[in-house]
Amino acid sequence: MSGARHETGPAGATPPAAPDVPARETAPGASAQDRAPDAPSPRRAVPAPGEASAPAAPSGAGAAEQGAPDAPSRPAAQAPSRAGPGAPGGGPRRRNGRPRIGVTSSAKGGRWMWWLSWLGLRVMGLDPVRLRPPMDDALDLSGFDGFLIGGGDDIGADLYGARPLMDVRIDAERDAMELRVLDHALPLDLPVLGICRGAQMLNIHRGGDIHQEVREAYVDVPEMWTPLPVKTVTTEPGVRLREVIGRETFRVNSLHHQAIDRLGEGLRIAARDEWGVVQAIEDASARFRFGVQWHPEFLLWRRPHRRLFRAFAAAVHGAGPAEQRRAARNEPPPPAEPSSAAADAAAGR
Fold this sequence. Notes:
By secondary structure, the protein is of the alpha/beta class. The protein is built from nine helices and twelve strands. The protein has one domain: Rossmann fold (3-Layer(aba) Sandwich), CATH 3.40.50.880.
């Protein structure tokens, strides 16, 4: 295992029966990492979209692309690289014309989150590549067309100015890796979907913070820990998430003990649950920049969560908000406006 830990899914459209993941990883809900709520990461000053040039087109297949990393403001993680389930070789690459998506994950555990994220992205015509810490300084992130910041261990409390808790598991190398990914993606306005810990990391990267224990901040919240839909979230009026999902309310799962508190720069609340806990954030100025506190990859059998993945895929292909909404809902495009010549001909002029 050298280079940047990259795992790509199999070339086919069905998930692998026995993916090439370390034996030490555990099934969802079994490891401390998978059970630990997702936590946030360091506050960062990020250039506004458009200040950096567009990413270079990915090079051919094979080992990870080499090049200077995109100016991280914090020390970048080191990187190991490994081919994922069924994939020969060791680096990210565009295969069969599919855009490549970097999916961040922990070095240990999280296999179910990776497999199901792989499935959700693959079904949408994308090529997921698993990124695990530590990340090589030489890894060229310009070969990716978007990023999914996944769930996992808590984020280091020092990144958002809080006192560390004694009974949680953190992964400083993963924190550094994801900060570097966001340093790269946000100035280029690449599509980013943050899931659970990933939503918190997005918020902290923009200067926000989190509640370290949800039930201390919201005393009425019951104990919930399940990948199945167990609570209702309500989207805020006028937010893009409601446009994408197509519903004011829908059901989500609960696999977190932390939640977003103070919002980061440029972000707004997109949804809350019935106890008032923030369940989604978004950046309305970005092409696609959403963070959700639940795990949609476990709920792909339900329409609202498939729509979120569809909208992400549409954004990766360059679609704007209106096209993302139509793609998410499988709506036909609006009728084309007739040209002036055609209009004249129809009028007999």
